[in-house]
User: Which sequence fits this backbone?
């Protein structure tokens, strides 16, 4: 991941500043020898070819039981600092007269306790949330220094060695998926953090931690360039929805059985 | 008491990211644009009665501009990487244009100040000795021609620069509004009116600041405050505050009348978290009272004593400076007080006094332009023409109508 971000940064820097490129390669941001990868379009990840994959994600809200395993797994895998979430679970309880009550105690990390309210609940369900890895991502659009970018295989990442920590991406994300931890004990403190779709895992053929940890298969990774991927088949043949579709951010994260109350 | 959190918030949404510093940034750039508009009223639009502050407002604009980046840099998580915004700008980012917009405008300001003060620089270089002579001859760029023809050329250049400067100042501040107005994720920010509102309120804060700073400077120097100068600024202030408040109200009224899904949370925001800073400060105290005070000045100014007129205009200016600050606060902080779930409100943001992005650093930053102005005045007096006119008896220190020379 480190290599990707560095290389991407250098490519963008060269594009954006033309003549300054030489200076940049030798400068503190570029670290000289990191500019080694092969010809334009080749993968910076060795054998892994990012042109051969296009990741998407399917969340089945009917299956989710709100156990919080995905949130725990994500936190453990990615050292997510306390009080922040790369993924979280929301609980919706909708009364007979249509009043929706939503909560997400500690992001669903510890699961949910039974809600003893007096209203008659007509339906209730859990909705896991995460970065939508949008194709038209507002966060990438607004990043002033090009530290936020989308990989060729469809994952939105942050070059945390280049991020200035202005927070514009956090404001621009309609889904609340990004955060900036200021605690100095957090690696890459004071820069933008977000779900990487466990890029370090998926580029090795593994599943993201949240997908691997889900006991009911509510969270699944799809490769849209793999003709035989069963999750891809579900996304293209079944009725799926995305969050806040009116914003036209083109999310790669699809939801099955999404309720109108969810944004 | 306002409860801590209310309703459902996305779990990452409970933190306020953009602090007092980001409130200060549009406030300061607003003063830049506003002060420049005042100077252009004199330099381009021929409001000759503004002659005492023609130069002062230009330098004031520069002084505010010089500190405009400080709140931003202080806010950055990694200020040491601030120059990335110039070195690797992302062409699709509104914020990446900052380096370009800022430097362009700064260049125009410096050039204009140089041409306006060129005669003074050359004179000082000629009349002084030693190190001072060296510094001023450097500042003069070793061009000592101050003949009638050369000064006429200077004057023309200043007019052209101001003419370029006005759209640049509008662009600079409209751009700041655009940073907020173009974020579709936030319904409280996302409106095409935002840059326009920012621009007009910038002019309001700039004129208000110039009225107060002019009065303060004259009081410090023991020079008379000219009735006509204040009256002209007060009437422009009145016009721009009407435009600003109209636009601010239009935005809310449209939101309320459309009653889209975002209005539910924005109505809660305005009536709970922002009830003091929006309804009381921005609308009632901040707009209604100065409107009435300035109305009195505009309608009855010539019939009242200069002192009374100055007190009314000064009070209105003070209040309007607070009003514009409240507006910035309500936009920047208000936009972060509700969650993007549109289902919940955060707890109030109260900046600490000593913290990195707290009140003390804000006070230091906002006082720096005044230090710059005092230092500038030591080197290149900005009120020379006023001092000369006073010494020559063309204007007098009195309560009534001072005799004014035509400048």
Assistant:
């Amino acid at each position: 991941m480190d290599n990707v971000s560095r290389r991407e940064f250098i490519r963008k820097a060269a594009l954006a500043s033309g003549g300054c490129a030489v200076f940049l390669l030798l400068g503190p941001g570029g670290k000289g020898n990191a500019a080694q990868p092969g010809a334009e379009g080749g993968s910076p990840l060795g054998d892994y070819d990012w042109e051969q994959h296009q990741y998407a994600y399917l969340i089945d809200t009917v299956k989710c039981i709100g156990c919080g395993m995905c949130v725990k797994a994500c936190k453990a895998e990615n050292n997510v600092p306390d009080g922040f979430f790369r993924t979280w679970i929301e609980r919706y309880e909708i009364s007979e007269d249509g009043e929706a009550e939503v909560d997400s105690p500690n992001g669903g990390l510890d699961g949910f306790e039974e809600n003893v309210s007096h209203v008659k609940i007509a339906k209730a369900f859990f909705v896991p949330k995460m970065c939508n890895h949008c194709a038209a991502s507002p966060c990438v659009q607004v990043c002033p220094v090009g530290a936020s970018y989308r990989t060729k295989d469809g994952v939105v990442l942050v070059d945390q060695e280049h991020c200035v920590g202005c927070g514009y991406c956090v404001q621009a994300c309609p889904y609340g998926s990004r955060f900036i931890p200021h605690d100095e004990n957090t690696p890459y403190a004071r820069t933008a953090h977000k779900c990487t779709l466990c890029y370090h895992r998926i580029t090795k053929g593994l599943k993201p931690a949240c997908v691997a940890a889900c006991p009911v298969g509510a969270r699944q990774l799809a490769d849209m360039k793999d003709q035989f991927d069963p999750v891809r088949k579900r996304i293209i043949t079944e009725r799926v929805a995305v969050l806040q579709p009116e914003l036209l951010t083109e999310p790669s994260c699809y939801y099955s059985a999404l309720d109108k109350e969810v944004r | 008491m306002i409860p801590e959190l209310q309703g459902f918030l996305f779990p990452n949404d409970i933190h306020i990211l953009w602090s007092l510093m980001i409130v200060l940034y549009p406030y300061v750039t607003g003063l830049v644009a506003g002060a420049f508009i005042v100077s252009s009223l004199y330099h381009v639009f021929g409001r000759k009665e503004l002659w005492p502050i023609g130069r002062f407002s230009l330098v004031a604009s520069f002084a505010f501009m010089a500190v405009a980046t400080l709140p931003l840099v202080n806010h950055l998580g990694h200020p040491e990487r601030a120059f990335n915004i110039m070195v690797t700008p992302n062409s699709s980012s509104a914020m990446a244009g900052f380096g370009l917009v800022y430097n362009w405008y700064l260049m125009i300001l410096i050039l204009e100040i140089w041409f306006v003060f060129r005669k003074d620089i050359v004179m000082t270089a000629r009349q002084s000795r030693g190190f001072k002579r060296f510094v001023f001859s450097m500042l003069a760029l070793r061009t000592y021609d101050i003949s009638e023809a050369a000064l006429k050329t200077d004057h023309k250049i200043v007019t052209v620069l101001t003419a370029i400067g006005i759209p640049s100042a509008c662009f600079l501040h409209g751009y700041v509004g655009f940073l907020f107005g173009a974020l579709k994720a936030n319904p409280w920010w996302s409106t095409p009116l935002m840059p326009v509102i920012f621009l007009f309120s910038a002019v309001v804060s700039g004129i208000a600041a110039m009225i107060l700073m002019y009065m303060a400077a004259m009081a410090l120097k023991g020079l008379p405050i000219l009735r006509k100068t204040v009256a002209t600024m007060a009437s422009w202030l009145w016009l721009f505050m009407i435009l600003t408040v109209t636009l601010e109200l239009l935005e809310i009224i449209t939101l309320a009348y459309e009653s889209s899904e975002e209005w539910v949370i924005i109505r809660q925001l305005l009536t709970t978290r922002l009830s003091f800073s929006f309804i009381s400060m921005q609308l009632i105290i901040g707009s209604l009272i100065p409107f009435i005070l300035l109305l009195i000045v505009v309608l009855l100014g010539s019939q009242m004593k200069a002192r009374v007129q100055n007190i009314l205009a000064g009070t209105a200016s003070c209040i309007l400076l607070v009003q514009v600050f409240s507006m910035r606060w309500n936009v920047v902080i208000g936009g972060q007080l509700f969650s993007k779930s549109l289902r919940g409100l955060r707890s109030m943001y109260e900046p600490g006094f000593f913290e990195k992005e707290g009140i003390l650093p804000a006070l230091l930053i906002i006082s720096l332009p005044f230090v710059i102005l005092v230092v500038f005045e030591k080197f290149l007096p900005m009120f020379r023409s006023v001092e000369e006119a006073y010494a020559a008896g063309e204007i007098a220190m009195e309560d009534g109508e001072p005799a004014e020379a035509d400048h």
Notes: The interface with chain A takes residues 8, 10-15, 17-18, 72, 75-79, 81-82, 84-85, 87-96, 98, 179, 183-186, 335-336, 339-343 of chain B (CB under 8 Å). The two ends of chain B are 58 Å apart (CA to CA). DSSP finds 14 helices and two strands in chain B.
